[in-house]
Each structure stands twice: as structure tokens, then as C-alpha cells.
Design a protein that fits this description.
Blueprint (H helix, E strand, L loop, with lengths): L5 H10 L4 H12 L5 E4 L1 H8 L8 E4 L3 H10 L3 E3 L7 E6 L2 E7 L1 E6 L4 E5 L3 H6 L9 E2 L5 E2 L4 H6 L9 H7 L2 H13 L5 H9 L9 H12 L4 H10 L2 H6 L8 H11 L4 H8 L6
């Protein structure tokens, strides 16, 4: 499937206020070593929907992490080895952090971190991803590769796991929070089978580090429709499982009312409110 001409792709990415020239430096570095590289994740969804919901730039390549480092070094591009053992190298250009992940398949999971095996098969990489809308690849000629039919689900405002929801949740319990984030972002209703799996296994969120839990919940906190979904998450006990303490729900409706009047969503303000001491 062809999205559009290369020039129009550049225009779309720039329209999203994404620094295309920074991405292009990485692309050229990988291609110089005969590697293939594509966009994945939020930026692809934004290009398809012609709207901006994400600021993260994620790239996927068919060469292994050490080769990625060699490519970056040869083009004098700074990098961080965050997540290196899981196939990720983070390029640092003009203050932008751009993740480059090598194609892989997860051969063992313990609910937190996978044991990975590298591959050059794009379909294999797609199979190990969580949701169909997260397995849409876009190359720099505007060519889309969509082996899990994620575009159909994206345009139908549907967030579903790839494969059996229970199995995918048990592979990595962070997917529970990711399911809520992407559903709140792209859909008006839950996929029932996926929701059932997330509720059933919510107690295992404690197996994840507080850092991983917090990083994901912060992305949920700043969503425009968080107010609408706050009581659902609280009613099903997700905040208690995430933070392992009770959070403050007193005057929450008044808080959101004031926030709407301010016409400003503040991550810090919301955190302070939810964790303030209860007063009688």
C-alpha cells in the first residue's frame, strides 16, 4: 500500500512539527550500511489520520543493535544505549531522542522483560507487538506495511491485541496500562475480550517496577479525556494496583471543573491533587 509520494510524506511529517531533517540523518546512516529502516508507532498513526496525538519518534531497522551503533558513529550521531539488551538504541540529535529498535521476536517472557532474538523478518517483528494499530510500518518512500490490518482497526477506532489478549498481557503486564492509554486515545469503547484480560490480571502490575508503571500512567494522566475515564479506573481498582496506595478521590469532580475553567491540563497539578493528604 502506498500512502503518498515521498515529498508529501515529508510535508506531512513536518506538519506534525516533527524534525524530518533529524530523522533523515539516521535514515541515511542506516542505508549507508545497506540496512532498511521504517517508522513505527504514534508518528505513523498521526500521518495516517492526519492529526497529531504523539510526539514520540520510533524507528525500526532490520540490522542488529551493534550495527546500528556503528552506523551512528560513522555519521557522528550521538546515541544512548538505553534498552540495548532489548534491541533498542536511542539517537540524540539537536535535543531530540529518537528510538531505533532492531527487528526481533520475543522467545521468552516473564511478565516484565523479554528474552529477544533478532530477525530480518518484518512479519515476525509485527507478531510480537501488542496491538494491531502498533504494527503499522511506514518507509520513507511512503510505502505502508500493515501485516496485522492495523489501519482498518485504527480507522474503525478499535484497539485490540494481536492474538490472544490473555497471552499478550501475561507476556508483559505493562500492556494492561497501554491498552487503557490507547483505548482512551483512539476509541470510545473497550474491546470486551481485551478489557476482561486486563481486569483479570491487574494484580500483576505490582510485578513491574514503579518506574515503568509511573511512566505509563503519566501518559494517561495528561489525556484530554482522562476525567471521563478516571472513575472507571478507580472503580476497578487500577490506581491502587499501580501505586500500591489509595489515592485521593475527594472533590475530584470539583478539581476537574476548575481545570476545565483554566483550560489547561497539568500533569504536575493532577499528580499533586491525586496524592494530596485526605482532610476531614
Amino acid at each position: 500500500m502506498k500512502l503518498n509520494r515521498k515529498s508529501k510524506l515529508k510535508s506531512k511529517i513536518r506538519k506534525l512539527k516533527i524534525p524530518y531533517s533529524d530523522i533523515e540523518k539516521i535514515v541515511n546512516a542506516i542505508k549507508a550500511k545497506k540496512g532498511q529502516i521504517k517508522l513505527i508507532g504514534g508518528i505513523v498513526r498521526d500521518v495516517i489520520l492526519d492529526q497529531q496525538k504523539s510526539r514520540e519518534i520510533d524507528l525500526v531497522t532490520n540490522i542488529q543493535p551493534q550495527n546500528v551503533i556503528e552506523c551512528l558513529e560513522s555519521h557522528k550521531i550521538e546515541y544512548l544505549k538505553i534498552g540495548f539488551k532489548y534491541g533498542c538504541v536511542t539517537a540524540k540529535i539537536n535535543g531530540e531522542l529518537i528510538e531505533i529498535t532492531s527487528l526481533r521476536k520475543d522467545i521468552m517472557n516473564d511478565g516484565r522483560w523479554p528474552v529477544v532474538q533478532y530477525t530480518r523478518d518484518w512479519k515476525e517483528d509485527a507478531k510480537r507487538r501488542d496491538f494491531t494499530i502498533n504494527a503499522i510500518y511506514l518507509d520513507f518512500n511512503g510505502e505502508i506495511f500493515d501485516p496485522q490490518n492495523g489501519i482498518k482497526d485504527l480507522k474503525n477506532n478499535t484497539v485490540v491485541f494481536i492474538g490472544n489478549p490473555v497471552e499478550r498481557v501475561k507476556e508483559d503486564y505493562l500492556r494492561i496500562l497501554r491498552f487503557f492509554r490507547f483505548t482512551f486515545l483512539y476509541s470510545k469503547k473497550f474491546d470486551e475480550e481485551s478489557l476482561k484480560a486486563c481486569i483479570e490480571y491487574k494484580k500483576y502490575l505490582k510485578k513491574l517496577s514503579l518506574e515503568r508503571r509511573s511512566k505509563e500512567i503519566l501518559k494517561i494522566l495528561i489525556l484530554k479525556n482522562f476525567e471521563k475515564n478516571f472513575f472507571f479506573l478507580h472503580r476497578h481498582g487500577f490506581f491502587k494496583e499501580i501505586f500500591e496506595i489509595e489515592i485521593n478521590t475527594k472533590n475530584v469532580k470539583e478539581f476537574f471543573h476548575i481545570e476545565r475553567k483554566l483550560a489547561n491540563v497539568s500533569e504536575i497539578r493532577r499528580i499533586k491533587f491525586l496524592f494530596q493528604s485526605r482532610k476531614s
